[in-house]
Design a protein that fits this description.
The chain has helices at residues 2-7, 24-34, 49-60, 82-93, 107-110, 113-117, 129-141, 156-165, 170-183, and strands at 14-17, 38-43, 70-75, 97-103, 120-123, 150-154, 187-191, 197-204. The chain is α/β, with parallel strands linked by helices and 210 residues long. The chain has 2 domains: 2-123, P-loop containing nucleotide triphosphate hydrolases (Rossmann fold), CATH 3.40.50.300; 129-204, Helicase, Ruva Protein, domain 3, CATH 1.10.8. α8 packs across α9.
């Protein structure tokens, strides 16, 4: 359902609920790259009512935003207090704001009931080990955003270990591997548990930062 809504650019207000690293922010980035509507991101930790009003005012400027609508992604929306969440309600209700809220807390307890009633709640499950392994393989093949431009020799044991090490978070596994490659440009050697050694050798084909 969510895939079809994003593909058709007919997204409505939604709340993404799930543990850290399950893809809430990544989904927001996908929507930002595919939608024709104005897209704005706020973090509930640092944003306030004034920021919400500014987003709405900018959205109503038909010269800069002909649609008159804005997709507003609010990360950690559960950190908004009642007053801040109430400030969103009239704009979500009249369609000026299409809300995408991301939260690690149960939204039925942490988000305004009026906002919940005007949104669709999607619960995202934690990634499994095989999902993270697939992401690492894709990163190794991607020549533009990944490490496909480098001649890498990496064993499946290392990939599986990275997937376990990440605690079901893609960012953790990718960050660990990229950090190793940037620290040891010519050769990376990792020593792991049970006195076993796994090696990752890197031979750069191009001069660029990882």
């Amino acid at each position: 359902m969510l895939y079809r809504l994003i593909k058709a650019d007919r997204i409505s207000s939604i709340i993404l609920y799930g543990p850290p690293g399950c893809g809430k922010t990544s989904l927001a980035r996908v929507i930002a790259s595919t939608t024709k509507n104005k897209f704005v991101k706020l973090n509930a930790v640092s944003a306030g009512v004034a920021d919400i009003k500014q987003v709405v005012e900018d959205a109503k400027n038909l010269l800069l935003n002909p649609s008159g609508r804005v997709i507003l992604f609010i990360d950690e929306i559960h950190r908004f207090n009642k007053l801040q969440q109430d400030a969103l309600l009239p704009y979500v209700e009249n369609g000026t704001v299409i809300l995408i809220g991301a939260t690690t807390e149960n939204p039925f307890f942490s988000v305004n009931k009026a906002l919940i009633s005007r949104s669709t709640v999607f619960k995202l499950e934690p990634l499994q080990k095989e999902h993270i392994i697939a992401v690492i393989h894709n990163a190794l093949k991607d020549t533009e955003k990944g490490l496909g431009g480098y001649d890498l020799t990496i064993s499946e044991e290392v990939i599986e270990y990275l997937a376990e090490l990440s605690n079901r978070r893609c960012q953790g596994s990718l960050k660990c591997f990229r950090t190793c490659c940037s620290y040891h440009r010519n050769e990376c050697q990792w020593r792991y548990r049970n006195h076993q050694r796994y090696y990752v050798r890197v031979h750069s084909k191009k001069e660029s930062r990882l």
